[in-house]
Amino acid sequence: MKTTDALVLGAGIVGVCVALHLQKRGRATVLVDRRGAAEETSFGNAGLIQREGVYPYGFPHDFGALLRYGFNRTIDAHYHPSALLEIAPFLWKYWQHSRRRRHARIARLYAKLIEHCVTEHDALAAEAGATGLIRRSGWMRVFRTARERDLRLEEAARWRQEFGLQFATLDAGQLQEAEPHLAPILTGALHWTEPTTVTDPQGLALAYLKRFESLGGRFVQGNAASLLQAGKAFSVKTVQGSIEAKDVVIALGPWADVVTRRLGYRLPLAVKRGYHMHYRAAGQAVLNHPILDTERGYCLAPMARGIRLTTGAEFALRDAIRTPVQLGRAEPIARNLFPLAERLDTEPWMGARPCTPDMMPIIGAAPRHANLWFAFGHAHHGLTLGPVTGRLVAEMVTGNAPFVDPAPYRVERF
Ligand SMILES: Cc1cc2nc3c(=O)[nH]c(=O)nc-3n(C[C@H](O)[C@H](O)[C@H](O)COP(=O)(O)OP(=O)(O)OC[C@H]3O[C@@H](n4cnc5c(N)ncnc54)[C@H](O)[C@@H]3O)c2cc1C
Fold it and tell me: What confidence category does residue 62 fall into, taking pLDDT thresholds of 50, 70 and 90?
């Protein structure tokens, strides 16, 4: 049996950042994943480091949207009818937490994490030599109708007042100048100027992993489900044999429940699945910013590999068969908006956003096991909050003063 100071289970962006921050603080850390690093959810996201994302994505409360979702024909959301019974308790809680006043209260707590997302990524990217993967030109919500544009601009103005967020407003002409290859069918854009964006989300995670290894950290393949507690230590089985450590961090994203349930924690977790596909931009067409086609509900992001189309939320069981219907619906609409040439991937990619009903991640000590730590449930913002979570967990594990008050994110709230 080998021994180390800390084990981090799960090498998505969250686990990699936790491991790097622990190793930086002098804890000999072994990062364990059953696959390579960032090959699951952290592989295929839209690459937005959402400094503006102080309001986590809520469940819609207006009747029109609910009705549209009920017919299951929208692009931004899709559900498996067969999963509804099982996920109904989660959806009910999610709906309650999304009520206006509660959502606003959650945003005030959540903003304390979000406000550090750009600076914490910048710090890690600088030491990892990966600043070249980060763009500093923000991202845009584009609008087809004046009504939606005005609603969203009003909302942005409120957020600016409450949280100091910065944005620019573009009319149709200014948008054409900023993005000359978008079809001239839009009424304008809301340009969030503070967020940064990543041209290769997996590449960024791998750069952080390399930095972790250069500091002496080790990445080993193993099965988190083999986690055992023996006295004051934990052990896990890996391809290099069993490894024992005093501290264990569970950073398994959508698979966190596989381990937490065995340890006796019943947590209200669910997933929102999402898909992507890459396209070559036709001819000399260029997309300068990631854009969200607001009324249609999909993203187009310029990535190192091509233009990445990402879809909204699919409510389904994590391991249910893939049903990329949203991608099928979005593709022809995206082709009318921007000149996309052929698909570059043989199959649509799918990931599962790990969600909690109050839309905030679970970060902190496990209440019934000493030296067991939770870092999962980052939903739409795992890329955004990976480094913030990594630092916060490492500070708690090493007994240093946390740079953000961790109390709102404790698992005890459920
Ligand atoms: C379409 C889409 C677009 C998105 N866009 C954005 C965006 O623009 N910005 C943003 O901030 N977020 C975005 N997200 C969300 C973001 O990708 C996730 O929140 C984030 O990747 C979660 O990271 P994680 O490390 O918690 O989980 P994961 O990346 O899924 O990592 C979990 C790891 O655990 C491992 N694992 C599972 N079971 C075991 C086991 N038994 N043993 C060992 N290892 C195991 C897996 O192999 C995996 O590597 C998007 C998500 C999707 C689906």
Answer: confident
pTM summary value:
0.98
Q: Residues 95-100: contacts with CB within 8 Å, 24+ apart?
A: 95/59, 95/61, 96/357, 97/58, 97/59, 97/357, 97/358, 97/359, 98/58, 98/59, 98/60, 98/61, 98/359, 99/61, 100/61
Q: Give the closest residue (by CA) to ligand 1 atom 35.
A: 10
For residue 379, which atom of ligand 1 is closest to its CA? 19
Q: What tens digit of pLDDT does each residue of 222-251 get?
A: 999 999 998 889 999 999 999 999 999 999
- Residue 224 Cβ contacting ligand 1 at under 6 Å: yes
Question: pLDDT by residue (tens digit) across 355-373?
Answer: 999 999 999 999 999 999 9
State in Å: Cα 148 to ligand 1 middle: 31
Looking at the chain, the number of H-run helices and the number of E-run strands are 11, 21
Closest residue to atom 9 of ligand 1, CA basis: 48
Question: Which atom of ligand 1 is nearest the CA belonging to 276?
Answer: 1
